[in-house]
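Running this now, will post back.
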Amino acid sequence: MKVFLTLSTSERKNLLLMFAAGLLFWSSIGSLLPTLPLYLRSLGIADQQLGFVMGAFAIGLLLARPYIGAIADRHSRKRVILIGTAVCGLAPLCYLLVNSVPSLMMVRSFHGISLASFTTGYIALVTDLTPPKNRGEVLGYMSLINPVGVSFGPALGGFVQQAFGNEYLFILTGSFGFLAFLIMTQVQEKRRTDNLDKTDSSTAIQPGLWRLLLSPRIRILSLVLLHVGLAFGAMTAFISLLIQATGVNFNAGLFFTAAAITSFGIRLVAGPLSDRIGRGIFITLSISLYGISMFMLTFADTAWLFLLSGCIEGAGFGLLIPTTSAIVADRAYPHERGRLFGLCLGGFDLGIALAGPIAGMIAQAFSYQTIFICITLILILGLLLFLTQSSKDLPHSLRYALGRGRDIYAL
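Update: finished.
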């Protein structure tokens, strides 16, 4: 935490305001993780259609990411964060206005724009305010908004849904988004032209999106995040229904709360450690932990097993996102950070988009447990991909993925 003392007063104030807005944003998003599938089921929507609705969230993510990244790079990081918080406030209220599957998919896609905007702008703006030598540590601390918000949100959302009903649930989540918007209006964004080195500022031609995506700097990271996105999307869409189907008396929101608490703890140590011993080993650990958690869900039949699975999932996710953010920050020039973050996370978004419909078809044809068997196999493939393809050749990849070699793509 001493790293924050090295920042100016205005930078610390901006980071504090951003942290508060981030807590509200993720509390809003988290409140709907265990509750929205149950709300959709109460409307009489079948598993396959439910998967399409939940997966539609990532359609908005995918469509918005490239444009949001460009706006963040060329105009303002703060502007895209404001877009994200505004949509976060408005979208939950729209769920109350529609009940058909196509309409719900449209609202869900619109809601996805909030995550694309907020995460892209937030990571890029924090990176702008952070000394390069402490980047992993600060990103680790500032990314705590996710586990804290997602630990508080699901438990609160589940309680409000059960005690007061869906109307109050959506009003609550919308209020969180609008409060985050108001807080972000107070953040002062400094001009970034002074941060660009001569090489960056003299670059006349910006690389195209496809060229950036296919570059070795983020290609494998994006593919790995695709695998994890498939797992995350299927899990968030069907964990509540899996718990309900097993007959276990367990609030699904507590699964996400357990995950978030573990994620909080792991991020406190992962950021500083990744600055010292390298990032690759933490990606390897994160995918491994995520796979173990998903495998546990194939046979979980008690509240304690669901809680343990949630804790392990949180540890995996807590390592993945801040480490990935730090890797991209290490490999990106200031003028392209927004686009590079957006494109890399686009793999995760695509995984979520595909996960809902695919998992819905599996659930309808087989069982909820079969979904998590398939997820486990997908994560094993993602782990093998990172172990063998994360650097320029197999020996370098293994060394980097196991914490024995440097990142050859870091600038």
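The chain has one domain: 8-187+212-401. More later if anyone needs it.
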